[in-house]
Predict the structure of Dipeptidase.
Amino acid sequence: MEEKLKSKMGKIICVVLALFLAVSLVGSAFAVDKVSAEEDPVLEDCSTIIVGKKASATGEVLLGHNEDNGDNVMVQYKVPAATHKLGELLTFEATAAKIPQVEQTWAYLWSETRASWSASFSDFFINQWGVAIVSNSCSPSREDKPGLTDGGIGYGLRVLIAQRAKTAREGVELAAALLDQYGYIASGRAYSIVDKNEGWILQVVKGKHYVAERIPDDQAMFIPNWYTIHQVDLKDTANFIASPDIITYAISRGWYTPAVAGSYSDFDFAVAYQSPTANQAGNIVRQKNALTVLLGKAPTDVQAFSVKPLKLVDLDTIKGILRSHYEGTSDDLSNGYAINPHQTGVRTICSGTTMESLIIQFREQPEFTCVWRATLNPCTSPYVPWYLGITKVPTGYGWLTPANGMATHFNVPVGDLLYRPSRAWWAFQDVQDLANDSYADVIQTIVHSRDALEKR
């Protein structure tokens, strides 16, 4: 018994020391927030929340996102605005289209997935105008005859939105033009393109078919890893942007047959374009639990595009969803954390593959927009304020120039993935590893320090 107690105490001390190291890296870098106002890899991927401005406690749109990948390191960059020479071409994946650059590009924050695999479908961007982009895999779609031009576009889609768009709508329109011209290289994906006024979800099929829908101002939406756009009104250009043949193409492929000839009122994009053989258990449990929090009761439709929340959604509500292992519900199989909640066999929102979690608190003046960012699992990591107006990334979070990061994004040197305790990523990784080793013993200690830092 004495040896077991010593072992448990040793683990807790290690956790406290590791968290203090992580906190010291954070505390030395940031001011306290005092302002009021190819194919997708086969992974269990991300979770995203968008809250319309009339459903938000801040009065502006809120965006929350968990980035789920594996075997990678996240690096942060502040990329400056730039002017470019006529004729400059942008190269992303070796087999993808080379895209002409525009004369002026905007500044942006970039959170990069540096990995041993080709990270074409990860990464978070938010530019100087407060246009943010995150994404979720929606693979597999049904498309097996994609139309691509010059190899199509993949990673470049999010980069070009960050470089060129001044509003979320402009970002969607830009993406639509690129998809029309080049076509998309992954089976299926959803891009959340958001600013302080509007939240859009763009759902893309391999090739040149896509649809984007605007989240109603008084509603909130949650997306795991399936298509969530259902009814599509091509005449409602204020709320939908789509490839012109999105419905007729589905008819031609036999994926949709109108109940009444000539009437498309029963067209459902998700049903038509999602592969009917995909295992959706992980998506069902995530969306059901997230919508339950927003509604204050179980949802009648676990695939709803958006819902009107019971009350205004604040930062703490979004944190709770992004940190959720379904505590207090029948979907929590951890037995009071006797089993690590990331390892119960039920896909949780905060999972063992969560590499980054963020909540964007948009503000009227873009420089004061705050990206609340947690490194790795948000259950073991504090949300730290990153202001859009910062001029550089602190040492420990970024150790490469943006040019070097982009040049090596698809060919990452092995050294960038090795353990370096002086880098923030590994400090937080140490905390997470200790928690995974003995979650029930140490999580309360971690949460106490985590919450104290967030309040400060």
Q: What stands out?
A: Residues 92 and 406 are 8 Å apart (CA to CA). Residues 23-43 have pLDDT under 50 and may be disordered. The chain is about 25% helix and 20% strand. Residues 1-30+421-456 form one domain.
